User: Fold this.
Amino acid sequence: MVEPDADGTAATAVVDSLVRDQAPPPLTMNNSDGVLVRVRTLLPEFTGALQRVAEQVLTDPAAASRATIVELAERSGTSPATVTRFCRALGFDGYADLRLGIAAETGRARASGWTVDIGREIQPNDPLERVLGQIMAADTRAMHDTASLLDLAEVERAAVAIATAPRVNIFGASGSALVGEEMQFSLHRIGVAAWAWTDVHNGLASAALSRTGDVALGISHSGETGETIELLAEASSRGATTIALTSFPRSPLAELADIVLLTATQATTFRPDALSARHPQLVVLDLLYVAVAQRTHERSHAAFQRTAQAVHGHKAVKDGSSAP
Assistant:
């Protein structure tokens, strides 16, 4: 039986319906990964009815955990067969496992106070106290989701590559460029030769001079930023080890990279995914920076002392008067 399209009419061809609703291969993730993280990660790959199921689950996870398979299918305008395909795409054997996973996750979130305002749109006339609570809840959830997504073995590989690299190029655009500049600043403070490039021409020139042993780090929430992909590809073609920091493991940027570091987001009103990704990105890069410093401890400690001493004269004197 062919289920109706979004407008309620039947699909004109069985083949078209199957292609539209085909689920991507099950996503390989750790058992500890949250169900909602998996759904958000796969959402861009879902189309048609599968996408409607995913959006329904994300809109009201608590209701989804209580719904029968028929109820979830009705609420999403799909069929029980589509819900079953959705479960398998997430790595579950059936709908019962999906419900249990969502229920456990929403229960943990309520116990921790994360979901007080998650899922509620911020209104223009909301008091700042409520807005602050919404932002804190969303960012806290995003941090925990990022921790569950992050493969520490990949962080280890990235840290070793950067610690031994003669040169590190960092690529990003817009908000990702700001994050990249933070990482470049941190690495420079411990003596790592790192450059953050936001101009495509300058970045391509630097990427073209890459050699085996160098590292190229590309930052893009979507993993689909054309300039960042081009820069990372150029560095890769010259022998550099490539690292992608993204929220989507099957994005073009992730598929191009040797090492993939994943982040999660929790969007709110006025802070779409690309903006809400910034804090999780900074957390992952801070972890990577510390891991590099650990592996170059003596060099990093000496470099940090020298750089701190160099800028010390520009700080205010402790008695409150300005330094000369």
